[in-house]
């Protein structure tokens, strides 16, 4: 019995260290993300949720990196005119070339909305993805799963929570990073399980 308890304890410690190492790797990778956008894509998508995402995406869009942009996960009470009012410098660009998606309630919903939008607009090569830096790994995982044939070009936005200090220096930033890591692991597990299911099903068909 003592030997079994010791083995269980060692296994628990090992699993804890694996999870901790994964989290630290995830957090430092997110913090050190660099923006190197020197190309033009077929389209651009911005996922709502952070205060800086839409203004940064619109400013980037105005530089001609894509010909059409989707803002996905928009609050039903927000209109294109309202976004134009908040960004008066780019009002004409918003009116002509920015689409709003109202159906997505989460990141997987963003991916489904993005898939429909790319199909409707014949976007088949590349897509710039704009979201918060801590949210980018999960967003890319969901989008890669729904749009496997598209090249996804990340444009991470650093929010105020992450801009003022490193993640380990702020309890709020640490909680945010921890929560996002758990969500990322769950999403990655779901995607892997789904792929294995389809591969197994195909093998027996």
Briefly summarize what is shown.
By secondary structure, this protein is an alpha/beta fold. The protein is built from 8 helices and 5 strands, in the order αβαβααβαβαβαα.
Provide key terms for this protein.
8 helices, 5-stranded parallel β-sheet, 13% strand, Rossmann fold, 205 residues, alpha/beta
Written description of the protein model:
The chain has 205 residues and is of the alpha/beta class. It has a domain at 33-161: 3-Layer(aba) Sandwich (Rossmann fold). The protein is built from eight helices and five strands; from the N terminus they run H-E-H-E-H-H-E-H-E-H-E-H-H. The protein has a five-stranded parallel beta sheet with strand order 3-2-1-4-5, with helices on both faces. The protein is globular, with a radius of gyration of 20 Å. The mean pLDDT is 88.
Count of extended strands: 5
Q: Remind me, CATH topology of the domain at 33-161?
A: Rossmann fold
Number of contiguous helices: 8
N-end to C-end Cα span: 46 Å
Q: Which overall shape is indicated by the principal axes computed on the Cα atoms?
A: globular
Give, in order, the helices and strands. Answer: HEHEHHEHEHEHH
Point out poorly predicted stretches.
Answer: none
**Rg result:** 20 Å
In quaternary terms, these chains amount to single chain
Q: How much of the residues is beta strand, in percent?
A: 5-15%
Would you state the CATH class of the domain at 33-161? Alpha Beta
The chain-level structural class is: alpha/beta
Helix percent reads: 55-70%
CATH architecture of the domain at 33-161: 3-Layer(aba) Sandwich
Q: For the largest sheet, list the strands in their spatial order.
A: 3-2-1-4-5
CATH evolutionary superfamily of the domain at 33-161: HUPs
What can be said about the biggest beta sheet? 5 strands, parallel
Average pLDDT reading: 88
